[in-house]
Design brief:
Helices cover 39% and strands 17% of the residues. By secondary structure, the chain is an alpha/beta fold.
Length: 378
Amino acid sequence: MSNPPVLHIVCFDIPYPADYGGAIDVFYRIKALSESGVKIYLHCTYKGELVHHAPLESLCEQVFYYPRNMHWTGMLHIMPFTVFSRRNDELLRNLQINDAPILFEGLVCCLYMSHPALANRRKFFRECNVEHDYYRGLAIAEHSWWKKLYFYIEAVKLQRFERVLRHANGIFALAHQDKVHFKNAFPQVTTYYVPCFQGNIQVEAIEGKGTYILYHGNLTVAENERAATYLAQCFGKQGKWQMIIAGKNPSERLYRVCQRYTNIRIVANPAESEMEALIRDAQLHVLVTFQATGLKLKLLHVLYSGRHVIVNSEMATGTELKQLCHTVHTEQEMQKQCDKWMERPFTAEEKQYRQYVLKQLFDTQHLSQHIQSIIFKQ
């Protein structure tokens, strides 16, 4: 009987609870790999108080935790702060307890990818974003001038640091346009398209009609607040349909915008069950972004749980999900499509088609087998 395959995974955070895009992708990848027999040594950086999570630790052979150094002086280093704050000699030592391949989850975890001690190891990179593009987008969306400056400086540093990926044996891109970026930037490293891992299996959308439009997201993120503000103004001026904006810690700025319109309502900090009910009962989900980066897992979630979905072109860029959404390019197109789909019930045929497409694209067992065939290739 052959020995089971062994893998080190270096993660940007503790990927549990899996309640945001990056953590969802990592946690369900760990789950799929573990269930297929891979012995995982997980290395997590964290900030704040350390919390152990039994569901995560039960999937791994061993979990190591490393506190981040968040002192502001790290911002003065030539290295990106988000990388420098994860520097830890113990991590480097623990990666050498055996000679198993290493999967680095996100560019911010790649400090030791080029280290001489790991020169003879098989090393793979899973992207979260094209990080310098993502940070530039954060800078544009940010209102605070010092945060804006920080994001711009970090973007420059991250673009320079990205050269560390020359030392990878393979790159797993989560979007088609990201695959093009890495293939062009590192032609000597093979880049593979591997969409995100996630926990949904069955489409649970309810047939029939709802009465409102929903936008949801973490409203502490400047990009999401920008999107929510845009949509509130768009549908508030029209005044025809009831719209709910739901999410974490909406700002006073967003409240002021929404208070101008009688048909716009904010639901702040809904419990998970309340959020799921809002998603389930909405007639239409409108999701926009001004950054064609990131996992956009909330889009995937509403395709499993909600009725009709309208997106702008940036929201579905780089995935095959456009075939399940109604894509718009202008505010006028958005309002026209909303008028159309607010009147049309969600049908059993649409639900069945969604189930078929999503099964083809996001079967975690198939995705797990695919990356194992690459990482453990003899």
